[in-house]
Amino acid sequence: MKQRSNYWQLLPYIRPHRLTILLALLWIGVYTAFWPIQAWLAGQISKYVGTDVTMLAKIAVAGGLVYIFQGVAQYCMNTLMAKAAFGITLDLRKRAYGHLLGLSGDRLSQMQLGDLSYRLTEDIDKIGEIVNKIFHQFIPCVLQLVVILGYMVYINWQLTLAVFLIAPVIAVLVGWFGEKLQKQSLKSQNQIADLSSLVTEDLGSIRMIQAFAAEDYARKKFGQEAEFNRQAKYLTEKINALQHPIVSFLQVVSILFIFVLAGIQISSGNLTSAEFVIYLTNIVLIISPIALTTSNYNELKQAEASVDRVFELLALPQTITERPDAIVLPPATSKIEYRNVNFGYTSDKTILKDFNLTVKAGETIALVGTSGAGKSTILSLLNRFHDVSSGSISIDGIDIRDVTLKSLRRQIGIVPQDTVLLSGHIAQNIAFGQTAFSIKDVEEAAKIANAHQFISQLSQGYYTYVGEKGTTLSGGQKQRIAIARAVLFNPRILILDEATSALDSESEALVQEALERIMADRTVFIIAHRLATVRKADRILVIENGEIIEAGTHSELLDRSGRYAQFYARQFSKGI
Ligand SMILES: Nc1ncnc2c1ncn2[C@@H]1O[C@H](COP(=O)(O)OP(=O)(O)O)[C@@H](O)[C@H]1O
Ligand SMILES: [Mg+2]
Q1: Residue 196 contacts residue 115 (beta carbons within 8 Å)
Q2: pLDDT at 363
Q3: Is residue 452 lining ligand 1, measured as CB closer than 6 Å?
Q4: Nearest Cα to 480, choosing from 507, 504, 505, 462?
Q5: Does domain 6-314 bear CATH number 1.20.1560.10?
Q6: Which residues have CB atoms below 5 A from the ion given as ligand 2?
Q7: Cα(134) to centroid of ligand 1, in Å?
Q8: CA 139 → CA 30, 175, 281, distances in Å?
Q9: Rounded to the nearest whole angstrom, what is the distance from the C-alpha of residue 417 to the centroid of ligand 2?
C-alpha cells in the first residue's frame, strides 16, 4: 500500500472536465456567499423584534429572496458537478475495459473474473459517487466553514479562538477513526470480491459439484466466506457507530463552552445582542458542514480502496504492445518466416529452441505431433498472443512486431478446437467483431460453411439467440459457425487448431467439407490429431519438443518410415 493519497491518480481523468468543474466552482462561490448574508439577516431581525413591523417584513422578504437565489445556485453547482463526476467515471470505466482487452489471455485466465468485474462495476461506481460527493458536498462545506469562521472572527475573535482550540482535538480523533476505517474497508471489499468470484466459480462448476456430490463441501466453503464477509462488514459498522456519538458529544461540549464565554463577553460589553444572534446563527450554520466534512472524509478514506483496486488493474502490464511507429501490415502475399525463434512461457522453460520455418503464400502446412509438443505455441506467436524471446517472425519480410496488432490480426483467421459463442443472435456471432454487417453476407458465409441449412431450421433462423442463456448448439454446429465467421472475416492466413478434434465423425465430415472450401487460396496452418485430415497438406511438419523432426508430403513421410509413418500406422490399425 502506498502512503500517499491515491486520489491524485484521478487527476488526468479530471482534466478533460475542468471547464465544467470551473463553472460549478463559480456557482459554489455564489452559493457560499449567501451564508453570511443569512446570518446577518437573522441579526437584523433581532434588532427590530417588538419595535418595527415594516422593517421585519422587509427583512423577511429579503430572507426569502436570499433563500431562492441560494437554491438556484445550489441546483446549478450540483448538476454541473454531477455531470463532471459521472463523466470522469465513464472515462475511467472505458479506459479500464480497454486495458482489459489488451491484456494477454494467459493473464486474464489467471485472474478471478468475479473480482475483475467487481473492479469494473462496483469499484468504479464508488469512485464516481465519491468524486461527486467531493465536488458537490465536500468543497462547498469547506468553503462554508472558511467563510463563516471568517465572519465569526470578524464579530468576536475571542469566542472564535475557543472554537479553534477545540477543532484540532476533533480533527485528531476523526483522523484516527478514518485511518482505522480505511483498513477495515479494504479488508471488507476484498472479502466481497472473494465472495462474488466464489459464486461465479461455483456457478460455473455446479455440474461438477453435483457430480461429485460435493454440495456439503461447497456449502461449507461458501458459508465460511460469507461469514468472513459478515464479520468484516460488521466491524466496519461498529467503528462507524462508535464514531458518530463521539463526534456529536465533542460538538455539544464545544457549543456549551462557547455559550459560557459569550455570556462573559456580553456582560463585559464586548458583544451586542444582535451580534450574539448573528454569532449563534453562524454556529448553527457551521455544525452541518463540520459533520458533513467529517463523514465525507471517512467516505473518502473508504473509497480510496476502490481507487487502489481500479488503478492496480490499470497498472497491469500489457505484455503485447504496439510500437508507437507501428505500420499497417499490407495484405500478406508472399511468405511467412520464422527465423531462429526462441520462446518460453516462463523464463525457466524454453518451448521453442532455434525454430525455423518458411511458408509460401497459399501453402497448406500441417503440424502434427503429440499433445504438448508445441504446435499451438508455434501458431500463437504468429498473431502475437505472445512475443518471441529472441529471433523473429516476419510476414512478407516485415517483422510482425513492427506492425499494428489490428492489421496483423485482421489477416489471420482462427478456427479453434472449442468455439465460444457470445450472447447475441447467430448473425451477430458470425459477424463477430464487425459493427456493421449485411445479413446477405452472413448468409453467404453460412452457406459456404455448411451452416445455412441448420440455421434456417432454427425457430428464429439467423436471429436465434445463442450464448449463455440462448439455444444450445452442438459442437459441429458451433464449428460451422466458427467457419462462417472465418469466411466473413476473409483472412489471408488461416489457422485451424484441432478444429475437428472434438467432433463425431458425421459432423466432422460436414465441417471438413466446409474447411476445405475456405482453405482454397489462403495460407493455411492446420493442426490435427487425425492424420486423415492432414494428408492433403502441401507439407506436413512433425513437431516434437518444439522442434521440427520431419517435414515433407504425406507420401514422402510414409516412404521415410520415420515418426510420421509410425503415427500413421498406429492410427490406421485403430481404424481412426
Ligand atoms: N499459456 C501457457 N502457459 C504456460 N505454458 C504453456 C501455455 N500453453 C502451453 N504451455 C506449455 O507449452 C508446451 C507446448 O504446448 P502447446 O503448444 O499447447 O502444445 P500442443 O499444441 O502441441 O499440444 C506444453 O508443455 C504446455 O504445457
Ligand atoms: Mg494445441
Answers
A1: yes
A2: 93
A3: no
A4: 507
A5: yes
A6: 376
A7: 50
A8: 13, 18, 21
A9: 9
Ligand nearest to the CA of 373: 1
Q: Count other C-beta atoms under 10 Å from residue 390's C-beta.
A: 9
Q: Domain 335-420+489-574 has what CATH class? A: alpha beta
Distance, in Å, from the CA atom of 524 to the CA atom of 361, rounded to the nearest integer, reads 9
Whether the per-residue pLDDT at 164 is higher than 80: the answer is no
Percent of the chain having pLDDT more than 90? 32
Residue nearest to atom 11 of ligand 1 (CA): 372
24's CB contacts (< 8 A; 6+ apart) are 76, 77, 80, 81, 84, 135, 136
Cell 516485415 belongs to 398
- HEC secondary structure over 353-364: EEEEEEEECCCE
Give residue limits of the domains in the chain: 6-314, 335-420+489-574
Q: What is the pLDDT of residue 328?
A: 93
Helix (H/G/I), strand (E/B), else coil: 544 = strand
Instruction: Count CA within 13 A, CB hemisphere, residue 281.
Output: 20
Q: Does 380 sit in the ligand 1 pocket, CB within 6 Å? A: no
502-528 pLDDT, tens digit per residue, is: 777 777 778 888 888 888 889 999 998
Q: Which atom of ligand 1 is nearest to the CA of 346?
A: 4
**Secondary structure (DSSP) of 293-358:** HHHHHHHHHHHHHHHHHHHHHHTS--SS---TTPBPPPPP-SEEEEEEEEE-SBTTB-SEEEEEEE
Q: Is 267 helix (H, G, I), strand (E, B) or coil?
A: helix
Nearest Cα to Cα of residue 546 among 319, 320, 337, 340: 340
How far apart (Å, rounded) are the C-alpha atoms in residues 508 and 511?
Answer: 5
Distance CA 448, CA 519 (A): 11
Give the closest residue to 288 by CA, choosing from 467, 452, 145, 450: 145
- Ligand nearest the Cα of residue 375 is 1
Q: Which atom of ligand 1 is nearest to the CA of 497?
A: 21
- Ligand 1 close to Cβ of residue 377 (< 6 A): yes
Asked whether 105 lines ligand 1 (CB < 6 A), one says no
- Nearest ligand 1 atom to the CA of 106 is 1
* Sign of the alpha-carbon dihedral angle for 164, 170, 176, 178: negative
CB of 371 within 6 A of ligand 1: the answer is yes
In three-state secondary structure terms, 112 is coil
- Min mean pLDDT across 317-326, 393-402, 488-497 is at 317-326
Report how far apart the first and last C-alpha atoms of the chain are (Å, whole number).
Answer: 58
